[in-house]
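Example 3.2
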Amino acid sequence: MITIRLGGTRPESAQGCVAVPVPAAQGDAPVAIDSGLLPDDIAAEAAAYLAETEHKGSAGSVQSLPRPLRQPARLLLVGVGAGDEAGWRTAGAALARAAAREARLTVLAPADLDAAALRGLAEGLWLASYRFSMTEPKADAVPKLAEVVVAVEDSQERETALAAARTVADLTRFARDLTNTPSQLKTPAWFVEQVLARTGDDVTARVREQDQLAAEGFGGILAVGGGSAQPPRLLELSWAPEGATRHVVLVGKGITFDTGGIDIKPTEAMQLMRKDMGAAATVCATVLAAAELDLPVRITALAPLAENMVSGSSWRSGDVVTHYGGLTSEVHSTDAEGRVVLADAMAYAVAHLQPDLLLDLATLTGASRVALGKKTAAVFSDNEELLAGVGAAAAQAGELVWRMPLADEYVKDVAAEIADLNNAAGNPGAITAALYLREFAGPLRDRWLHVDMSAPAWSGGNDAELVKGATGWGVRTLVRWLSALN
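Structure, written as tokens:
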């Protein structure tokens, strides 16, 4: 990760590549930079260039002004929009790309830069500079941006914001790494190993392997994983700080590869199925982040992990699965496997963990993408306070959620003929999947929230702080939400 530090670099002494924030233009007025950021002669030069390029100051827009044989050698005039956290986050992401070949970048921040804006800038820099590759970098590769100095006075408030941004960005990048890794490596056992390697002494872990899952009755996880040569797992991570008065359980779908099972997916739909454990990566990374940030709330993450493969031992349509706790599912599609493993973990949480709040996250349905597009996660809950809290946290974090209805007229479709529930009740697919999962929240259904994050878990290209590939969606939102819990 880029090293970001605060420093009192004087504008007239800035060397090399220097970024200058440009607030959004107001109405028809021209954009104007803070007069105190640059010496008068350089400020006049920058202003003339801004007018020539018709820079509007929109968040993330960048104009590069080379200054050969002079210092600073290059000015990056970067739009910060309204100057809020979101604008600075987008600006940070743009700078990570515009200065990618620089060894060092100085950002001339206004003297009144608040902690939230600094956090946004840092998150943008760290998240947009993320790269994942299975090959070693070439010896003659172009140097990458290694250090950013934010030229603003140091303070405890700013240092705290920068530390929080560093932790969240680091764990988001970890979730991205887990999700991007090809499934020839990413078995359930491998996933557990990677998470445990990041787990410190203040986080406890319990791993249930196949024999334990069978002995304790986790029939859904066993059914989905039964066709694979790689046995399933259930990973349980817990952060339990002294004095915590609330307990939140996060359940994340962990299908390390999804062929669709016997109801096999077409080739184009299977190409990116290594991402089908993105939610498990998110909930595990969130617990690790909470421990690093010393959040005063008890948090347990449950990651039911399985490969949904095709073999002579695969589960079949028409089978009846007995879940943890006794509810049964009639299998109408082996490609509706995520909710089946989530059901086991949710039932276990309700029976044994006594959570105050229960959230499940999953790359669950294509229907949510059809409804909401590529960037927005669907959220379902009957708890208005919980919806409002998660929604506010998502807005602060720069991730998008939209409430979808738990429409009771479709409850009848979730019922099965020879079992309690139908695992693939059909359209509207995101709603019937949520209704299915609600049955496993039991007495916690009024304190439960479901997140269908199938679309925003993956980005098709570079977009602000996102890079092509896994996004680590949800880590930022969950940490913000947990930080605000009273």
